[in-house]
Each structure stands twice: as structure tokens, then as C-alpha cells.
Amino acid sequence: MEAMGVAAALGLLLLTAGGSTGDEAREAAAVRELLVRLLGPGPAAAFSVSVERSLATESGLDTYRLSGGGAGTRVQVLGSTGVAAAAGLHRYLRDFCGCHVAWSGSQLRLPQPLPAVPEELTEATPNRYRYYQNVCTQSYSFLWWDWARWEQEIDWMALNGINLALAWSGQEAIWQRVYLALGLTQAEIDEYFTGPAFLAWGRMGNLHTWSGPLPPSWHLKQLYLQHRILDRMRSFGMIPVLPAFAGHVPKALTRVFPQVNVTQMGNWGHFNCSYSCSFLLAPEDPLFPLVGSLFLRELTKEFGTDHIYGADTFNEMQPPSSEPSYLAAATAAVYQAMTAVDPDAVWLLQGWLFQHQPEFWGPAQVAAVLGAVPRGRLLVLDLFAESQPVYVRTASFQGQPFIWCMLHNFGGNHGLFGALESVNQGPTTARHFPNSTMVGTGMAPEGIGQNEVVYALMAELGWQKDPVADLGAWVTSFAARRYGVSHGDAEAAWRLLLRSVYNCSGEECRGHNHSPLVRRPSLQMVTTVWYNRSDVFEAWRLLLTATSTLASSPAFRYDLVDVTRQAVQELVSLYYEEMRTAYLKKELVPLTRAGGILAYELLPALDQVLASDCHFLLGSWLEQARQAAVSETEAHFYEQNSRYQLTLWGPEGNILDYANKQLAGLVADYYAPRWRLFTETLVESLVQGVPFQQHQFDRNAFQLEQTFVLGTRRYPSQPEGDTVDLVKKLFLKYYPRAVSF
Ligand SMILES: *[C@@H]1O[C@H](CO)[C@@H](O)[C@H](O)[C@H]1NC(C)=O
Ligand SMILES: *[C@@H]1O[C@H](CO)[C@@H](O)[C@H](O)[C@H]1NC(C)=O
Ligand SMILES: *[C@@H]1O[C@H](CO)[C@@H](O)[C@H](O)[C@H]1NC(C)=O
Ligand SMILES: *[C@@H]1O[C@H](CO)[C@@H](O)[C@H](O)[C@H]1NC(C)=O
Ligand SMILES: *[C@@H]1O[C@H](CO)[C@@H](O)[C@H](O)[C@H]1NC(C)=O
């Protein structure tokens, strides 16, 4: 079979999961309602939206068709599904109206009358699926969302053509019913679940107990949200992926069933066994299919099903045995528990395990997992394909269908970063791989709300066979749409960012922010980057030059803050290098100068700039947490969950600063005090003539970190100060320094 043939055949096999023709009217209505939310009722009336299944290609691929527009004529948007129609609408707004739909502030100024589509335009996607989310996005980004925020996100998903996404909320409420039915006590269940901010890892069996228990109100609220999320996703014709049983069970199951065969896994992520080392049910134990089907039956009774289920047994955890027969049995057990309840079940597996522990997952081990499920029934997410694609070394997942996913972001970190060239080429290369079984493209960031340009490109690629021909031209038009005006300096700034921070490749290329700004200081910090810092400083200057024209654009102000933030991140590295050099040479004056500027001036100035934009406020993140609570005790508990996630991650800084963010409040009260302590400790060391002791410093730093986490200070949840004034002030003071290093 030639390359496209294999994927198309598998795509067809998976098509059974799609919606039926009877839903056309419902899907069209959902897109019309989206239009009203996006543009308001007046402008929305200038569009006519319909859904016709027959528009799909012969092999069933999503298609949209645009026509009409111009004076006195409505714009006609036709889609094979609601999602396809929404993607067509987005295409029209983007390419004909120059609009931009964005997390950081949409630009939706419509030309009047609406531009005509000169020739009927029909576009089909090359793949069955456009996937969205990572199990961790649920914890790093969606954690405290209410329905209003979810609604916005599902609109964003539809406009970007996403037709497959996790719907992960509320699963603990279902598990609670199952465990109670199995004879566990409420106290045992409460002891098992993690707190809200760490559920992603509880669900994968990495953690239990830590930062829990979940209050009853949490379960109720998540059940309510999940129903609304599912209704809305389905109304667009999206396929929500529900969770299934992967094999992890609470320890208390062994109290109720003393004969049960469980294996205790090793510890995870520097957590000890009080919080990790979860119990895995043996695949041949009769309880395996029982627990698995109890859960799936209860879940689908509550929520219905679209027949695709996610489960990850060995995510970042070494299996108890590397015997292929064991791995095959463990995999088959998960699949059989699914099909016992839903004979049409397709299993969505995160392929992260294969690339995270390549030394364990040799060819025999990978083959055991991939071969344990009938071909076409295991849908693998090649999760980090822009950097370490797994399909290339597994013969396209040995014939199982896979989705080429860009992971891009770890921990929801800020920090300008992207591998745009690799993202741009990746899906096409994967499609042309010999006997490719690629059936989709996807975005699987651990956290969202940063580096929007990367997501905009990836979303477009979901509807294209070929890479964007000229990324320079593409990013130029991206900037013009984003700000609503073409501005030479702003566009030049974006081309500089493209060739530097967004053209990442090689060793130092990290989606995870390791800037000294957000890390506990030491004398061994790495400051090398994959780009020329001058490009960032020059982009900063150019954006500032454009402020007089563009300052009224919210996305522009966001970018001005974000690039200033990045410039400060670069400056921190440069001042830190000065400090280290001075310290090693035992030169007190340059040490105090560099350390003094960094800790007492630069970071407080950054905090002020961040405080001027609603997207960079610790206060609004913590306020969301508090709003999710039904009592002051709960509000305090939720806030502490949030503070832990952003900083220490575990009780002792177990995964310290992994989910670092650069937020107003966090910079002033967490990062800056740590840098002040470091500066003072080094100065003290030179003055007293005693060596710097990293261990002692770490202990003292931990005290500061913990004080922040346990603190109760309230931070503003509304922006304060004028962004442009604050950026100018910072620029005038530091730009000369930036370019003279
Ligand atoms: C795990 O660490 C916590 C502190 O973080 C401690 O209280 C607990 O005793 C430890 N448990 C084990 C099993 O070592
Ligand atoms: C328990 O499960 C393991 C792993 O599947 C298996 O090797 C072992 O034989 C089982 N033990 C018993 C007593 O059934
Ligand atoms: C592709 O599949 C065909 C038919 O199964 C096989 O003969 C051929 O060797 C495969 N090509 C590669 C490169 O694996
Ligand atoms: C990115 O870098 C590569 C070399 O590593 C270069 O060939 C390519 O042109 C660069 N792309 C952009 C958009 O600057
Ligand atoms: C970085 O860019 C600046 C300004 O364009 C240039 O002077 C410098 O040589 C570049 N540095 C490197 C290492 O390429």
C-alpha cells in the first residue's frame, strides 16, 4: 500500500467515531451561536452558516467552502461538520478580513462591507484528526476555569478546527462512586486523591495524596462543568476523549481484597512513597476487568460516549518488568476492560513514555505494547514530534495510527520559545514517511497562554498538505493581523523573533524555561541560549518604536510586556554572569553593583511592567482559585495548591520551579527575594572570607520559598499602571546596558 493509503485506511476505520448526518442542523446552530459570541449579533447576521456531511471528501475528510460576501450579500460558510464550518469561518476572518483570534486579545475589526470571496473557495484537511491538549494542560492551565472560560476555549478550539480533545473533568467524582461501591471508605478515598492542582499526575498514577483531599464541592462543580463541556464540544461535532482505567488503584483496595495481586511502582519525580509509588493491578487479576469496566460503565452512563478513551499506564514510570509478555498483557488488559463495556472503543495513548525512557523501551518492549491492541484500535499521540518524533524509529508505530503532535510547552512556562521550522516541516515529513500511519496533527502543550505564534502556525498546518512556503512572510502577516495594522517596525521585530527565539534547534533548545531569573540561584547556572540575544533586544527596541501607532491594540500591549519580560530575562543572565565573574575574582565592587541592580532594581521594575497587563498577574490566577471555592477554608486551600504548583511543586521543592511563570507578585515576592539572598550571601562570603556553601544557601532559599507558598498576602487581580510608560522607563534605563554587553 502506498503511504497515504495506509493512513487513509486507518482513518476510515476510525471514522465510525464521527457524528451522524442527523446532527447537521445542531452543528450549524452551534457555529451560528459561536459567531454571535465572537462578533456580536449585528455582524454575525452578515454570515450564513450551514453543515452538510456530503461536503466531506470521498475518504470522509473534513471540508469547508466559502463564498458570497461583498455589498448586500451574506458570506456563505459551509462545512462538513460544525468544526469544519468554524474553521472555514476562521479562515475567512483571517485571510479576507485580516482578523486575529487570540488568547492574549483578539483583533476583530471587520471591513465594511464584508469582503467578497471572489471565487468559491473549498478546502479539505489532509487528516482525519486535529487533536488538542496534554493531560497536564488540565492542571497547569484549566485548573480553576469556570464555564465562561471553558466556553471561550471551546470556541477557540472550533475556530482552529480541533475535532479531537480530552474531556477530562469530573473523573474523580466517578472514581469515588466506583471505589465506594468496591467497599473503600470515604476516608480512604480522600487519602488517595491529590489536590486539585496535581490531579494530572494522580490520574497517571505518578502521585497520590499530595496536597489533597478534594472537597465534596470540587466533585459537584467538576461534574457540572464536564456536562457543559461535553454538550458544547459535541454540538460542534468534536470528539471528546474520555478517560479509562489504566491499572492504578488506591492502596486501600488491598484492605478490601487482601488476595489482590498488585505491584508497587517505583517513586516518581523526587516524591517519596508517601505521595508516589502507586499500586498497579496485575493484568491477570480478576479485579482488573472488574474495576476497569465498573469505571467505564459508570462514566459512560453519566456522560455518554464518543468511543475514544485515554489511558496511560506507564507514563514516566518504569514498568515492573521489561518482559514483552508482561507488557503485552498489561496493555491488553486495559484495552479489554474498555471493550467489555464499549465494543467500539478506540484507545488514545500518549506516546510520551517511549521517548521519555528510550533506554527501557527497546524495539521488543515497544512492539509488545503496540501489538497488544488490534490494529486501528490504538491511536497513538506522538507527543513531542517536533523535537523527538517516535514514529521514525517504530516503523510508524508498527502500523497503529498516530497523530503528529507539537508539545512545545512544559509547565506553562513563560519565555519566548519555538521550533517553528521544525513544526512547519514536521507534519508533511511524517505524512510522506514510508507506509505512514499518520492520521492527524495535534497540539499537546502542558500549559497554554504563551507564544501564541507557534499555536497559530500549528493550527493552520492542520488544514494544509504542505508546509508554509515562506515563514518570514507568514510571520509578517501574522503581526499585521494581530495588531490590525501593518507596521514596518513591528513586523521587523517579529522577523527578528522568528530567526532567533522561534528558530530553535540543537542542544540548548528548550521548551522549558531554565533562565536564572526563575531558578534557585547557584554558581553553576547555565546561561547559554540558542539565539543571538541582540535580536531580542533589537525586537524590543522596534516594538517600542511602534507604540505610538499600536498602543491601542491589546495584543500589541501584551507583546510589548512579553518581549520586555524576555529582554529582562536576558539581562538577568548577563548580570548574573557579571556577578559570578566578580565573585570568582573576589571583586566586591562589581559584585555588589551587578547583584544590586539585578535583585533590587531590575526585578522590581519587571514586576511593575507585568502588573500593568491582566495576563501577567499572580493575583488573577490566585483569585480564580479562590473563586472556585465555596468557603474561606476552601479558598485558602485552593490558593495554597496554586502557590505550590507555581513554585515548590512538592512539600520540599520536589520538582522545584518546574511550572515557573513570570507573573507580577511572583517576581517581586518569590524570585526577587531569592536573588537578594544570593547577592547578600556572596557579598558576605567575600567580606568574611568564608566559602559560599550551596547547601546552606539552598536551605535558606527554601525558607523563603516556603514562606511565599504558605503566605496569605492578596495580590491585585486588576492591572495597575500604564504599560507603555513603564516599558519606556525600563527601556531607557537598561537598553544601553543590554547592547553593550
Ligand atoms: C515523605 O516526605 C514527607 C515530607 O515531605 C515526610 O513527612 C514523610 O515522612 C516521608 N515519607 C516517607 C515514607 O519517607
Ligand atoms: C502477580 O502479577 C504478576 C505480574 O503480572 C505476576 O508475574 C505474578 O505471577 C502474579 N502473582 C500471583 C501470585 O498471581
Ligand atoms: C511498506 O509496506 C509494504 C507492504 O507491506 C512493504 O512491502 C514495504 O517494505 C514497506 N516499506 C517500508 C519502507 O517499510
Ligand atoms: C533557522 O535556522 C536555520 C539554521 O539552523 C536556517 O537554515 C533557517 O533559515 C532559519 N530560519 C529562519 C526563519 O530564520
Ligand atoms: C549578534 O548580533 C549582533 C547584532 O546584529 C552582531 O553584532 C553579533 O556579531 C552577533 N553575534 C553572534 C555571535 O552572531
Automatic annotation (TrEMBL):
**Which UniProt keyword terms apply here?**
Glycoprotein, Glycosidase, Hydrolase, Signal
Per the database record, which ranges form the Alpha-N-acetylglucosaminidase C-terminal domain?
Answer: 474-733
Please state the Enzyme Commission number of this protein.
Answer: 3.2.1.50
Residues making up the signal peptide according to the UniProt record: 1-22
A GO molecular function assigned to this protein is: alpha-N-acetylglucosaminidase activity
Q: Which InterPro entries match?
A: GH, Hex-like_dom2, NAGLU, NAGLU_C, NAGLU_N, NAGLU_tim-barrel
| Residue ranges of domain Alpha-N-acetylglucosaminidase tim-barrel in the record | 130-464
- Please state what class of enzyme this protein is: hydrolase
The alphabetized list of GO BP terms reads: adult behavior; amyloid precursor protein metabolic process; aorta morphogenesis; astrocyte activation; autophagy; cardiac muscle cell development; cell surface receptor signaling pathway via STAT; cellular response to oxidative stress
Entry superkingdom: Eukaryota
Q: Which family does it belong to?
A: Belongs to the glycosyl hydrolase 89 family.
> Could you identify this protein by its name?
Alpha-N-acetylglucosaminidase
Q: What species is given as this protein's source?
A: Bos taurus (Bovine)
